[in-house]
Specification:
Strand content: 5-15%
Number of strands: 8
Distance between the termini: 28 Å
Strand order of the largest sheet: 2-1-3-4
Shape: globular
Oligomer: single chain
Length: about 240
């Protein structure tokens, strides 16, 4: 006998993603593209949550709309909730308190793990869409501080294209040009900071370019997509195959 629990209108969505409101292209690798994962995800756009209010202003009035949206995703049956912007890390405690499923707001949650993995003397290099806006408040929201964990932050404000098309919400972008821009910035970042042992993308929109950056700098590259896949797999463990 196999009993099945009901109560929802739709099924099969383990991961729910809270999305910022935007119109720029979302290519495979981006959380807003359905081809990014090999499992279905449930998306929920939070109206009014744009780049300016989340990244540049850190608008605290957005906490409540994100809480409401997270509760809606939970009511629809998702087993874990994430977001598509690393700058939402300060909302981590609020969202954790609002729902009864795991919450992973930002790739910044990975920093303590990466730090413990690295050789002595190496730092985590955090590559952000806007380094000037990434502060201790975001680190503390993710459960750590720069006083505890040595990190170095670099930003795409030193690039040519990527930050502009995100900030200005461009409707048309050249993938190859953007990829070259990120590789260039990442290369300078590592060259200027030779003690970087691994790169963490704060920005979820950088994930489509992770393989190219990793090949260019020769270092491990982490992002929120890897964290999401890990959490998804904890809900869908498979038995090992082999002879006992």
């Amino acid at each position: 006998m196999r009993m099945v629990k009901g109560g929802y209108n739709t099924y099969g969505f383990t991961i729910g993603i809270l999305m910022l409101e935007s119109g720029f292209p979302r290519i495979p690798g981006d959380l807003g593209n359905a081809c990014t994962f090999d499992f279905p995800v449930r998306l929920r756009v939070v109206k009014g949550a744009d780049h300016r209010r989340v990244v540049l202003e850190g608008d605290p009035s957005l906490v409540e709309p994100f809480v409401v949206a997270a509760r809606e995703l939970e009511a629809e049956g998702v087993k874990a909730i994430t977001t598509n912007c690393g700058f939402l890390a300060p909302f981590q405690p609020n969202l954790q308190a609002a729902v009864s499923v795991p919450v992973l707001t930002s790739s910044l949650l990975l920093v303590p793990l990466i730090h413990r993995m690295l050789p002595h003397g190496k730092r985590v290099g955090i590559l952000s869409v806007d380094a000037g806006s990434l502060t201790e408040r975001h680190f503390c929201g993710a459960g750590w501080s720069s006083a505890e964990i040595p990190v170095v932050v670099g930003g795409m404000e030193h690039g040519r294209i990527f930050r502009r098309f995100i900030k200005e919400d461009h409707r048309l972008v050249d993938f190859d040009d953007v990829q070259a821009d990120i590789i260039e910035v990442a290369g300078r970042f590592v060259a200027d900071n030779p003690d970087i042992g691994a790169i963490l993308f704060e920005c979820t929109n950088m994930a489509p370019y992770a393989a190219a950056v990793q090949a260019a700098v020769g270092l491990p590259v982490f992002d929120i997509q890897l964290l999401i896949e890990m959490v998804y797999n904890t809900f869908h463990r498979q038995p090992y195959v082999g002879h006992i």
